[in-house]
Amino acid sequence: MNLLIVNNLSAGYAGKDIIKDISFSIEAGKVTGVLGPNGCGKTTLLKATANLLAHRGSCFIEGQMLETLSARTLSGLCGYIPQRSSISIDLTLLDVVLMGFNPDLKLLQQPSRQMKEEALHALSMVGLAHRKDENFQHLSEGQKQLVLLARTFAGKRRLLLLDEPESALDFRLRYQAMELLRSYISKNQASALVTLHDSSLALNYCDTLLVLSNSRLSGIIEPDRTPISRMERLLSEVYGTVSISVLMNRSKKKQLIMMKEDIS
Amino acid sequence: MKITLNRLLSTALICLMLLSVIGTGVFAAASETTYPITITDQAGREVTIEKEPEKIVSGYYIPSSLLIALGLQDKMVGIEAKAGKRPVYKLAAPALLDLPNVGTAKEFDLETCASLSPDLVILPLKLKDAAQSLTELQIPVLLVNPENQDLLTEMITIVSDATNTKEEADKLLAYIDEQKTMLSDALSDVETPDVYLAGNSSLLSTAGEAMYQSDIIKLAGGKNVASEISDTYWAEISYEQLLAWDPSYIILASDADYTVDDVLNDANLKDCSAVKNNQVYAIPGDVEALDSPVPASVLASVWLAGILHPEQVTPDTYTEEKTAFYETFYGIQN
Amino acid sequence: MKPSMEFRTKKILFITAGIILLGILTICSFFVGKYPLTLSGLLSGDALQWRVFLTLRASRAIIGAIGGFVLGVTGFVYQTVFRNPLASPDIIGVSSGASAGAAFGILFLTGTMAITASAFAGAICCVILVLILSSLSSSKDGRSIVLAGIAVHSLSQTVLVCLKLTADPEKQLASIEYWIMGSLNGISLYSIGGNILLCLICLAALFLLYRQIILLSLDDQEGALLGVNVSRIRLVVLLTATLATSSVISMTGLISFLSLLAPHGARLLLKNNRLSTMILSGILGGCLLTLGDLLARSIASTELPVSIFTSLLGAPFLISLCLRRERAR
Question: How far is Cα of residue B278 from the mean position of the Cα atoms in its chain?
Answer without folding.
Answer: 30
